[in-house]
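Our preliminary data section would be incomplete without showing what the modeling component actually yields. Below, a chain of 248 amino acids is followed by its predicted structure, encoded as tokens that our downstream tools consume directly.
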Amino acid sequence: MNQDSAATSARLLALADGMGGHAHGEVASTVAVTAFLDLAGRLADTDLSGVDLLEKLSEAIEDASARLTALADAEPEMRGTGTTVVAFLVDGTRIGVLHIGDSRAYLLRDGELTRMTRDHTLVQALVDEGRISVEEAAEHPRRSWLIRTLQDGTVAEPDLFEHQGQIGDRYLICSDGVTAVLGDNEIREVLAGEPERAGAVAKLIERANAGGGPDNITCIVADLVEESAPTEQVPLIVGAAAEQAGGT
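Predicted structure:
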């Protein structure tokens, strides 16, 4: 079952990867993405120039946490449900970023790839402490153990930061179905070599599947372009959230 959910709109990019091996990960990812879509809907007619983007993202993840907790209280089999989250709230070239878990965000600028997020995993913590090397981390048997997620009954502790974009920047948000297989060099090659966003997404998925595809694979590729004003659009929703809404 696909436990990933993702959505995009004029002002929002959001991706959630329900925790595999836990109860109803597909529900958790759907709840998370829906909370962020609701945020985008509330802000649809708002001038964001004076808005604290990080405060709004914090409100959305608190809302998602409350929804998960309410579900678990009503349905005991939902206890332990959790998900990763990466979300961008966009105001022109000003971007608020929220991240929790091991889904990732990348920036491609002038041909150089930068990882914008830091994995909330046991292995990443060991790397940060200097106890193992990056090379050892890639092969560590516990490399997928998460130490921070959005989960029922707990207070979410996401990383939050504001990013100043530039016209021409390309962004990738992806679940670990991509990064468990593809290294940063291969990701950079695809993002830099495929001019069309859909082509870049297709190639990343193709290469991840060719490398073994051990998990659900979900990608968002977005380009920062110059527009006079944001054009609101019907959100594009994929994965578990689309399935639960009766989409395809």
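Residues 4-246 form a domain with the Phosphatase 2c; domain 1 fold (CATH 3.60.40.10). The radius of gyration is 17 Å. Preliminary results of this kind motivate Aim 1 of the renewal.
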